[in-house]
Write a structure and sequence with these properties.
The protein is α+β, with helices and mostly antiparallel strands. It folds into 2 domains: about 1-220, no CATH class; about 230-450, no CATH class. It has 15 helices and 13 strands. Strand 8 (about 305-320) and strand 9 (about 325-330) form a beta hairpin.
């Protein structure tokens, strides 16, 4: 891979493809890069452990970091590809993806025989790749692919998909291998890299932020240090969640950004100055109309892969809007308006009766799943991670942890039942209507009885 260093802000200058005839190949090339980055993400999850792929090599330049990514994709090496991503982002993605893939294997969505160092069925081969680099800051650089081609091939019969997916896609997947070649040029867009501890990595966050700016006709400028949001975090995992919820209740966008891990979302915090003013004004307007207070909060924590899971055991809220007040605490909801107050408290008897009515409305094949989901109550919460001495709430890790906890209640046969229901839109719509009526009826009966 050849590389040309350009001054800051010159990527996308007049020597790049601009005409409509050249726009198509550039967009196709960008799609290939998206595929390559997606391979990195998938590799983070399907991998048994990043350490098993060997110690990551040192990329001494931004172009070398991109080359590592493309080289891993060229060899269908998912474990190698994950090492090209910035450590903070990789650490947020990898543990959750590992759990997700284990769940998908158990549910026969993925094949248990997947070779993660050489994934069958999909291959990408890059040739003649040339790049140009624009230094946005001493630690952030945008790498534009200015030339080269990629040949992709797909053999559906060798893809590592499980029996459930093969059953759904029978007759839809191409029976023979397909191969195509196109330009890999990124055009006006770029892959943005970040220097961490002396090594350059591909940064998903900075790439998204930079390309959004370019797509809106704005220059891909360096993040403004003076306008950036500083990540502050908290001294404990539960403290991190408490502060996050408090900032959310106060519509404090700057505070919310400061509660997020800088290694994972440093790009969002760095570019905050470009959007925080307008977004902050909207939040201030909402804050003037709605008051939200957290009156009580009970939490518990437990270790999970990559961090600490903080679960909410109980919460008290007080909300007011346009003369209407709501408060919730200890399972009781109080509604107040024009001097009238209505209070409803959930009891085991009423909850059981409502659940039985909802259960009766479900198809027989889904009742077992509903009962298991209610009985097991998946461990949902916020995943917190430690950077330095401070704790932060990780949105990406939280998403995957909660998805995996929910999937853990499923059995392979449940997917078939869900798929059968979705194949009959009329039946699915009737079920949704029945559940809606049951829930509305429960609310109406509760209000009238108080």
């Amino acid at each position: 891979m050849s590389d040309e260093i350009e001054p800051s802000g010159t990527i996308g200058s007049s020597d790049e493809p601009q005409t409509s005839s050249q726009h198509g190949p550039a967009r196709r090339g960008r799609k290939i890069i998206v595929v390559a980055v997606a391979i990195c993400l998938i590799g983070g999850g399907i991998g048994v452990a990043v350490a098993e792929s060997g110690a990551p090599g040192n990329a001494s330049t931004p172009a070398a970091a991109v080359n590592r990514l493309l080289d891993a994709a060229d060899h269908s090496d998912l474990l190698g590809a994950i090492d090209a991503i910035a450590p903070g982002e990789r650490n947020a993605i990898e543990p959750g993806f590992v759990g997700l893939v284990h769940q998908l294997e158990r549910l026969d969505v993925l094949s248990p025989s997947t070779n993660l160092s050489d994934v069958g069925g999909l291959s990408l081969h890059f040739a003649g790749v040339k790049t140009a680099t624009a230094m946005l800051s001493p630690t952030v650089a945008a790498v534009s692919i200015t030339g080269g081609s990629v040949t992709g091939s797909l053999d559906a019969g060798k893809l590592p998909i499980g029996s459930f997916v093969r059953g759904l896609t029978r007759g839809l997947l191409p029976p023979a291998s397909r191969t195509s070649t196109s330009s890999v040029s990124t055009g006006r867009e770029a892959i943005v890299t970040e220097k961490v501890a002396g090594t350059w990595y591909v940064s998903l966050g900075y790439t998204i932020a930079y390309d959004v700016l370019r797509s809106e006709g704005l220059p891909g400028v360096s993040p403004t240090v003076s306008a950036a949001v500083s990540a502050t975090g908290s001294s404990t995992p539960e403290g991190a969640v408490r502060v996050l919820l408090s900032d959310a209740a106060a519509f404090n966008l700057r505070g919310l950004l400061s509660d997020l891990p800088p290694g994972e979302l440093g790009a969002l915090q760095g570019y905050a100055g470009l959007f925080l003013g307008k977004a902050g004004a909207a939040a201030a307007k909402a804050r003037s109309q709605v008051s939200v207070r957290i009156t009580s909060l009970k939490m518990s924590s437990s270790a999970v892969a990559g961090g600490t899971l903080v679960q909410i055991g109980g919460i008290g809220l007080a909300v007011s809007y346009d003369g209407v007040t709501f408060s919730y605490k200890g399972g009781c909801l109080t509604y107040g308006y024009e001097g009238r107050s209505v209070r409803r408290c959930a009891t085991n008897a009423t909850s059981s009766a409502e659940f039985r009515r909802i259960l009766a409305a479900l198809p027989l094949s889904l009742r077992g799943l509903a009962m298991r989901f209610t009985a097991s109550r998946p461990a949902l919460g916020f995943v917190t991670v430690q950077e330095g001495s401070r704790w932060f709430v990780s949105p990406v890790a939280t998403l995957f942890e909660d998805v995996n906890a929910s999937l853990s209640t499923l059995k392979p046969r449940d997917l078939g039942s869900i798929a059968s229901l979705l194949e009959h839109p009329a039946a699915a719509e009737a079920l949704a209507h029945s559940l809606e009526q049951l829930l509305l009826g429960a609310l109406a009966s509760g209000s009238s009885s108080l």
